[in-house]
Amino acid sequence: MPLLLPRATALFLFPFPFPKFKFPKIPMANSNTLSTAAPRRARLRGVVFDMDGTLTVPVIDFAAMYRAVLGEKEYIRIRAENPSGIDILHHIESWSPEKQQKAYETIADFERQGLDRLQIMPGAAELCGFLDSKNIRRGLITRNVKTAVDLFHERFKLSFTPALGREYRPYKPDPAPLLHICAAWEVEPSEVMMVGDSLKDDVVCGKRAGSFACLLDESGRYDSPEYANFDYKPDFKVSSLTEVQSLLEAHFDLSP
Ligand SMILES: [Mg+2]
């Protein structure tokens, strides 16, 4: 059962101020069109990863989870209203405590089934090794529970610090967890990149924090026209984690 903190409590527990950082404009690029004419390279001092579908192979059937939580009719209605994806945690927040409790149990069931089949994403371990060799910090933000993060750490012997689960409020796409990590690292958000497979959670969190955002899009689903007018755009897009190292080397100053 996740620890649920009211927003006011979360702010009290983590009371540092969040200054507004200006995001330096850089040209849009992706790993297939690396520009050699890029202006002065930005410094990179940390990378923050999403967990499910980014550091781990996607195993949770989110559509089935949403159906189970919302019911078929509500699912279809909400899906139509939110073509870029359903924010299930946000959606159930306004429900009665009893209904909410049941929804969290259903979500936890799906997440548990996912844990049984957990696999590390190809390229994740190599990328972590590369970041370590450059003394670039590694953090993790997930909307999954902290126990799933603990299991991930334990099973794959990779550690991310800080690693925040959904007990940290407000969660992604709010920039708060990313700003919290930047503050803990004592680095500017503009020196950090958020990497994740969700446009609406990871990219929005990264951009709102004033960081770089890299979208992992294995299947090319975000090439679909329905995402063309989405308010937030990633700075980079890759189809696998193995592309991230060359992207970092081409676009950033990785010196300590
Ligand atoms: Mg994800």
Automatic annotation (TrEMBL):
Highest taxon in the source lineage: Eukaryota
GO cellular component: chloroplast
Pfam family, one: Hydrolase
InterPro entries (alphabetical): HAD-like_sf, HAD-SF_hydro_IA, HAD_sf
Family matches, as NCBIfam families: HAD-SF-IA-v1 (TIGR01549)
Record's protein name: Haloacid dehalogenase-like hydrolase domain-containing protein At2g33255
